[in-house]
Amino acid sequence: MPALLLGLTTTLVLTSCGSGGGDTNGKLDVVASTDMWASVAEAVAGDRAEVEAIIGDNEADPHSYESTPRDAARIDRADLVVYNGGGYDSFVAQILSGDTEAPPSVEAFSATRERDQHGHDHDTAENHAESGHHEHGHEHSGNEHVWYEPSSVQQVAERISEHLGQLRPQHSAEFDRAAADLGARLDEVEQRIDGIEQRHGGTEVLTTAPIADLLLDRAGLDDVTPRSFVRSVESGNDPAAATVAEMQDLVDSQRPAVLVHNPQTASSLTERIRTRAENNGIPVVEMPETLPEGQNYTQWISGRVSALERALDESPNQ
């Protein structure tokens, strides 16, 4: 083989084998189950990756999403997959389990459960004290909506940074700084949640779905929603008549200061409860599952905390 051709062939082989995946412009390919987790991945990866979400429709319910062959292909070609886990976006786990050469992945639910059981992987108590990072120790009790707890999202961002750093070691410090910057912004949100707990700890609230339970618990609020209603909503069944009557009585009592409502799992029943709450002067705070257009995760969670804070401050039922 001529020397020039041999050199060219060798160069092509090395370029192909050393790319570590990613597209032709050298960027990593990151696929997330929802736009919520895509936004977190984008905050860490910056311009070093192309990040895409499988579910970005704010009308969709990830619990019941049915994947397509195109989704499987997107996950298969990814350099990194980021998903929620905990049964929330189970289609991702199903695709990964059926792939004998599945790409590396970050499962948010598992990462945060490990944090609950063992503490942060990388930060000691001394580091937390020096950095001002908050360690609250709230356990999830199986709630899969972990993006409603900013400290959990910080943990996931660290895991994403680790994986990206392994794929692109020359940029690992850059990924770590981006994750730390995101953590600092989320610490500010945590401090505002502390303020809600200080002013409104123990205040009763009602929910139409257990979407924001981690945030409500973190803020020290007392969710008085009947457990039978929560179980029915989670299973997709209609609550018993006695349970509906109990919810209506709670609303009519005007005890709850706020009604937390998930518009993406709304039904005729939950919409009636929402209207009843509004008629009783109970402020309604929407807590959805995907991002509105034009907002990143930090902006979104900050806005949801602000909405909750404002509703509690202005509620007549204090």
From TrEMBL:
Places the protein is found: Cell envelope
Predominant location category: other
Chain segments carrying region Disordered: 110-144
Gene Ontology cellular component annotations, sorted alphabetically: cell envelope
Compositional bias (Basic and acidic residues): 112-144
Keyword field contains Transport: yes
BP GO annotations: cell adhesion; metal ion transport
Protein family according to the UniProt entry: Belongs to the bacterial solute-binding protein 9 family.
Listed name of the protein: ABC transporter
Keywords: Metal-binding, Signal, Transport
InterPro entries referenced in this protein's UniProt entry, alphabetically: Bact_metal-bind_prot9 (IPR050492), Lipoprotein_PsaA-like (IPR006128), ZnuA-like (IPR006127)
Pfam families xref list: ZnuA
GO molecular function, one term: metal ion binding
Domain of life: Bacteria
Organism annotation: Actinopolyspora mortivallis
